[in-house]
Each structure stands twice: as structure tokens, then as C-alpha cells.
Amino acid sequence: MDNRPIVAVVGRPNVGKSTIFNKLTGKKISIVEDTPGVTRDRIFGEVEWLNKFFTIIDTGGIEPETDDVIVSQMRNQALLAVDMAHVILFIVDGKAGITAADKEVADILRKTNKPVILVVNKIDSMSQYDNIYDFYELGLGNPTAVSGANSMGLGDLLDEIVENFPEGLNTEYDEDIIRVAITGKPNAGKSSILNNILGENRVIVSPIAGTTRDAIDTYFEKDNKKFLLIDTAGIRRKSKVYENVERFSVIRSMSAVDRADVVLIVIDATEGVTEQDTKIAGIAHDEGKGCIFVVNKWDLIEKDNKTMGNYKKSIREKFPFMNYAPIVFVSAVTNQRINKILDTIVEVSFEQNRRVTTSVLNEVIGEAVMLNQPPSDKGRRLKIYYGTQTGIKPPTFTLFINDTELTHFSYTRYIENRLRENFGFEGTSIRIEYKQKRR
């Protein structure tokens, strides 16, 4: 994180933590519902205030000790966020007043010896302001009144957050980050892969399909490379999306692909390619993202010397338009080839940003035209005058031609293949655009 300040948002369930988080980040990153326990994992976001940048973490509610596995892990994730944070926002409900759970959370936070800002939420009008005085009983200093729903008091809250940053932290913005979306159907092992990459128990992992509901941003640095890893909720078939929360999760999975530079399409080796895998890959390809197929649970497959080759062939047959995408076989359980994932991400990111000089590009195009003449229609033949690279991520090339009506998909694919043979572009789609030019 390059020593970026970290702010944790904690409190008991359903006090408005995610609403405040979304308002501070300016994005609908956390799911907001009136259902307690909707936010399960630590959700990361970026905030700027007065030219200072910091990371903010939304957490699931801290509840008393329980035998419920999910609730217990939510509590542990929240406590881990507290341990990571430089400043803690303790959110309480100004309408409900102090509860036993609030007192328990306050006891935990006092022991951290970190700056704790007591935020009394749901103070929606001045007539409710006197409600804050009851919260002095928690022994955490002066309460700050806000209304997350109405955005009241958030400027004062941000001022207080920034004032509490310890000295020596880096609050400047850094754009040099590779953004990676980890996508796939529920229970394919996405969260386990992310945990192994990070080397910590970062995301709740359980055998219950659909445990991860939010798209979770995690910043990570290795070998002087910076990554933003987005673990997404699994994309389910529409017929299985029953409740509002699940519908929001599907939308967020789509938007995670949109935000990413590189998309990991995690396939369950025991199930093979599914309809949902095909849908995710199609979205990533159409959006021009870097794509990597990650076949997880490879340890569960009986193998001979042809197993991997046959599996690769099967994937290529089901994704004929994505022959450029590398395939990595891993096991999140045994940690097999997990390091290969990061190496491949770096390689694909490099290819996404590759630039070709105009002179070299036109040599390759000229040679391609000589070897295979462009198509003709009613006696008129397509002529390519010259080409130039006009973009990256994905690499985009504009070819100036005599008539756009003479272009054909098959010849565009031929030009793309020639570009790949000469320049690589492994892991990234290529866009070829035509512009009609009069001589």
C-alpha cells in the first residue's frame, strides 16, 4: 500500500456503516440493505479529502461471540481490519441509542490504543442532535453527529479523520497499479486463490456457495509491482437470483470486470467450463480486458501425461475467440502454481500496454497484404493505405482504407493474427478499427 493511511469502519450490524462508507468513497461499493449482516468481508475503497488520499475499509458487524460460522468469521474479519487500521470509525445508531453490543465494541476499541472517532449516525435533523449526548457513556471522547443517508456532517468527519493520521504516512496518489478482477461461478475457489496470493486469511472462505457477496478491493505489492485485486461475488444464473442482495452482487461482478485491467476467469476443474464461465469470458473479451483462464482444484483431477493438454484443448474449443488468453492450472488447497498467477498477470499487463511504432507496424501490414490479398467485391478491392496504433489497454490499431464497406471479418482476423505473430500481445484482445480515407 506504500504506507497509505488506513481507516476502518466498524460497529454492530445495521447501524449504517456501508452507507457512510459509500458516501465517503463516492461509489456504491458496499451493498446497502436493511438486512443485518449483508456486508460480510472487509471492503476496501479509496477516499480523497483536501488532496490527501487514504484507504477505507468497510466491515461486517461485530456481534457477540457465537457458534454461527459466518457470523464468527465476520467478527474476525472486522477485528483484523481494526488491527490493520491507523484510524477507527466506530459507527453507532443515534436513533436506537446505546446497546449492549455497542458497549462490547467500545471495550474492544479502547484496548487498541489507536485513534477512535465515535460517529453517531442517523442524526437526520437538528431536532435529533441531543441524542448524541447519551454516547459519552461509551468513554470514547466527543461524539461526531452525521447522517449517512443525507450526507450531513461528513465534511467535518473527514476533517477529523485526516487530523488523526499518524505522522510518516504517504497520502499521495499512485496510478501505477495493475487492476485485477477475480471472477467465476460461486464456489470455484476465487477467495481461496486470493488468500493464497496474499498469504493471509483475507476473505471469508467456506464451502457455502455464494459466501462472498461484495466485490472486495485489496491492494497488494510484490517485486515492486502494485496490484489492486478485486474478489467478486460469483455470477449466478438469472433463475437462481432470488433476493435483492444477490441481484446487486451480479451487477457488481459485471462492474468489477469493467473496472479491471486483467480478468482472472476461475474455472472449477472438477466441473469444467460452465455457461457462467462463458458469460464472464465473453464480457471480459468484449470489454477489451486482459484475460487469464485459471483452472482451480487441479489437485482433484486424476491425471496422465495427456490430461493437461486435453483440458487446454477443451477450453480452446469452447472459447475459439480467445486463443490469446493463457491458461494456468492451480490448486488453492495445495498452493500449486499460485505464484504463476501473479507472474502471468504482470506479463499480460505488459502486453496490454505494448506500443508499436508506425513504421514497424506498416512493414508488418504491408507484408501481410502481399502474402494474402484483401477481399474484393464487384470488382473493387479493399486497399489499406497505412495503419497506426491509436490506443492501449487493449492495443488498438486504426487502418486507413479506401472503403469501409469492403472490410470483412475474416480479413480483420487475419490481420490480427499477423500482428500477434510479430508482436505477441498474449493475454489481451486487439481492436482493429477502419477509417475511410480519400486519396
TrEMBL record:
What name goes with this protein? Answer: GTPase Der
Has UniProt tagged this entry with the keyword Zinc?
Answer: no
Source organism of the structure:
Peptostreptococcus canis
The UniProt gene name for this protein comes to: der
Q: Which residues bind GTP 1?
A: 11-18, 58-62, 121-124
Task: Quote the subunit structure annotation.
Answer: Associates with the 50S ribosomal subunit.
Family designation:
Belongs to the TRAFAC class TrmE-Era-EngA-EngB-Septin-like GTPase superfamily. EngA (Der) GTPase family.
Enumerate the spans annotated as EngA-type G domain: 5-169, 178-353
Cited function: GTPase that plays an essential role in the late steps of ribosome biogenesis.
Q: Which residues bind GTP 2?
A: 184-191, 231-235, 296-299
Keyword Nucleotide-binding appears in the UniProt entry = yes
Q: What's a Pfam family in this record?
A: KH_dom-like
